[in-house]
Every structure is written in C-alpha cells, then in structure tokens.
C-alpha cells in the first residue's frame, strides 16, 4: 500500500493550469497519438512517420530541402550539446553570445568540447548588439546565439547577427528553444547552419525529444572533421544512418515520435504566422490586465522583448514565493526569475498551448482573488 499522500499524488489527476516557460500543456492530438499501440523503431510505418516529421521540421525551421532534420532522444540541452559535439573541434574559436543562463550554458558546452570560447555579452534584460558580434568575428569557426533567452525574456536579433556572420565563413548555431514553431524562423534565408529546440516548448509535445536542423554547409563541415566527434549518441553520421538509410543506430522513443508528429502537424495546420500573431495578442492582453496591479515589463526596449516568455517586473512588496506557492495550491504553475532575476520578475509562458485565453483567465482570476 502506498502512504495516503502518495496515493493522492498518483491517483488525483486534477486539471492543471501550466503557464511556465516550458514545459507547456500537451496538445490533445499529441496525448491521443502517444497512446497508439507501440511499434518497433525499425518498423516501416515508423520510418514513414519519421520521414513526415523530417519534412514538417524543414517547414518549421524554414530550411532548404537539402538540410538534414531529425529528432534526438533527449531534451533541448541535448540539441545544444549535439551542435558543439559534431561541429566543433579542439582548438576551434567559437564566439558565444551570452546574455542570460542559456547563452552561458552554450559557452560551457562549447568549452567542454574543446573550443576556445570568446564571449559577447549584454546587460541582463538587453539584447546582444550585432555590431559587438561583428567586432569579434575574426578567425572564428562558429558563432552561437540563443534566439529567445528564456531566463530574461529577451529576443536576440538573429537575422541581423546572421547577416554579419554569413560573410565571415563561420557556422551559425541558433538555440531556437523558445522560438521555433511559434516565432518566425527562416534558417535558409537568414543563413542558420544548426538549430535545435525542445519538443515540450513551442510545439506542446511531451518532453524528451530535441528536433534539430543541420544545413548542408554544416554537414559538409562535419564530414570534413579531422577527428571523430567525441559523442557517439549524437554523431550526425549515426543519426543520418537511421533517419535517411534506415539502419539501426539506437532505439528511438517511438511513442514520443507519434505524439511529436501530431503536435507538429497541429502547429503547421494552424499556421506559423497565425501562431506568432496569437502569442502577440495574448501577451498584450495579459499585460493590459497586470499593469494596473503594478507589474511592468522587465525588458525595457520593445524590440528586445521575446513574445513567447512574458517577463514582468514585480510590484514593490509583492510576496513572490508565497504567492506562487498559493497559486500552486490552486493547481496553477507560473515561474519566477532565474539566478540574478529571482525575486525580481515573473516569467509567464506563452508557448504552444499555454498561449490560450482560458488558462490565463484562470490564472488572472486566482491572482485577483489572492491579492484581494
Ligand atoms: N535553451 C533555452 C533557451 C531554454 O529555454 C532551455 C530550457 O528551458 C534550454 C535551452 C534547455 O532545454 P531543456 O531543459 O529541454 O534541456
């Protein structure tokens, strides 16, 4: 017998209002697809499904047909790691734009794979200045930037950075974890060589998959490596063997593929532009409801604001942790700041199925009630 509190934990499936900046509520189509009868990872139906996922990912990332897309069996961080593992060799110069926690994670990973890391930074809550990138490009093999810095709610100017990197010969790696599938992303037109996200973010699929995109140029750079990649699991050649040549590499999580495919289909059926518009409308409506209570934008410049993560400075005297805990008692989850912004901001998720009026009505109603 389980102790009674654990019984409650496992049996009591209360509806939950999940408004964190990831994971997001799972799309109902994905929940249904997840429950399909299991198939083997080498089954012909799974290969057909994988092919459909690859094509849809090309649409989501805005790539050319020659770009390689696939799912890694892990979260967004594995997508990040795979880029450095495959595209960096010991001693390479890698310029990392680091204006928040995830930019710093990129820098740490690049260093672990032997890169000599140069940092371009910006004050917290501000976007990277593309001219700063331009000033440090000399001799660089890769530039890495987080498109949407979840930790602060900042949108970095990837198109402007890409325009500068394009002429330097360096590869461009973009963390698209809070953007791809919800915000405009045009890998081919911008000149992005490697991008990744996490299934649980803008697509509202279960966590555990990292959709990646590798440009033809990046794949050629990988094929010309002087040494093998130190990562067996994410080796692009092994992934291509499975995804393109249907050769066994590792057992992919087939039921997650089912769910992911359904969620990605739903996103593309809604349309990427419609989704971007939905996020903006939701963000404006939520801000209009919260600003009379004393909340203000943490990111000062409007152009620097990431639409999918609304970062709000808390009103003076608000009991951050206490209030979030009382919201959680009512089955509502939101997220506070991270590191230096802890206690200073709230981060409201507007990715995928979180960006809907109904859950925000529940949250705003409860907040009003608690602030009394
Ligand atoms: N990059 C960004 C911008 C993120 O927001 C996150 C997670 O929140 C990650 C990377 C890491 O993703 P995961 O937690 O899925 O490993």
Automatic annotation (TrEMBL):
GO biological process: glycine biosynthetic process, by transamination of glyoxylate
Modified residues (N6-(pyridoxal phosphate)lysine): 201
Cofactor: pyridoxal 5'-phosphate
Residue numbers binding substrate: 347
Aminotransferase class V domain ranges (all copies): 52-337
Source superkingdom: Bacteria
Pfam name, any one: Aminotran_5
GO molecular function: alanine-glyoxylate transaminase activity; L-serine-pyruvate transaminase activity
Cited InterPro entries: Aminotrans_V_dom, Aminotrans_V_PyrdxlP_BS, PyrdxlP-dep_Trfase, PyrdxlP-dep_Trfase_major, PyrdxlP-dep_Trfase_small, SP_NH2Trfase/AEP_transaminase
Keywords annotated in UniProt: Aminotransferase, Pyridoxal phosphate, Transferase
Family matches, as PANTHER family: ALANINE--GLYOXYLATE AMINOTRANSFERASE, AMINOTRANSFERASE CLASS V
Family label: Belongs to the class-V pyridoxal-phosphate-dependent aminotransferase family.
Protein name in the entry: Aminotransferase class V
Organism for this UniProt entry: Deinococcus ruber
């Amino acid at each position: 017998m389980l102790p009674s509190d654990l019984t409650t934990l496992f049996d009591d499936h209360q509806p939950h209002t999940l408004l964190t900046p990831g994971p997001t509520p799972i799309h109902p189509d994905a929940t249904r697809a997840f429950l399909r009868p299991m198939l083997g990872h080498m089954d012909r139906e799974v290969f057909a499904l994988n092919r459909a996922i690859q094509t849809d990912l090309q649409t989501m990332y805005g790539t050319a047909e020659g770009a390689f897309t696939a799912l890694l069996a892990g979260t967004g961080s594995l997508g990040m790691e795979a880029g450095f593992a495959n595209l960096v060799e010991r001693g390479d110069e890698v310029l990392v734009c680091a204006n928040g926690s995830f930019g710093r994670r990129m820098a740490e990973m690049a260093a672990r794979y032997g890169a000599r890391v140069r940092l371009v930074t910006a004050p917290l809550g501000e976007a990277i200045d593309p001219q700063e990138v331009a000033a440090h490009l000399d001799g660089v093999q890769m530039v890495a930037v987080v498109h949407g810095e979840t930790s602060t709610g900042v949108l970095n100017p990837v198109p402007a950075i890409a325009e500068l990197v394009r002429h330097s010969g360096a590869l461009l790696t973009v963390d698209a974890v809070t953007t791809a599938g919800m915000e405009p992303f045009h890998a081919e037109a911008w000149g992005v060589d490697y991008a990744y996200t996490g299934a649980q973010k803008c697509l509202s699929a279960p966590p555990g998959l990292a959709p990646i995109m590798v440009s033809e140029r990046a794949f050629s750079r990988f094929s010309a490596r002087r040494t093998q990649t130190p990562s067996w699991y994410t080796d692009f050649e092994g992934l291509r063997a499975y995804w393109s040549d249907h050769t066994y590499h590792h057992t992919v999580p087939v039921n997650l593929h089912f769910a992911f495919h359904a969620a990605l289909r739903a996103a593309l059926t809604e349309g990427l532009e419609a989704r971007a518009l939905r996020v903006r409308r939701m963000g404006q409506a939520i801000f209009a409801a919260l600003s009379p209570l004393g909340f203000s934008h943490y990111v000062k410049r409007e152009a620097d604001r990431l639409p999918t993560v609304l970062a709000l400075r808390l009103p003076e005297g608000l009991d951050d942790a206490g209030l979030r805990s009382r919201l959680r008692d009512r089955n509502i989850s939101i997220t506070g700041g991270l590191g230096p912004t802890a206690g200073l901001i709230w981060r409201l998720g507007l990715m995928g199925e979180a960006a809907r009026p109904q859950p925000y009505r529940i949250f705003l109603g409860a907040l009003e009630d608690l602030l009394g």
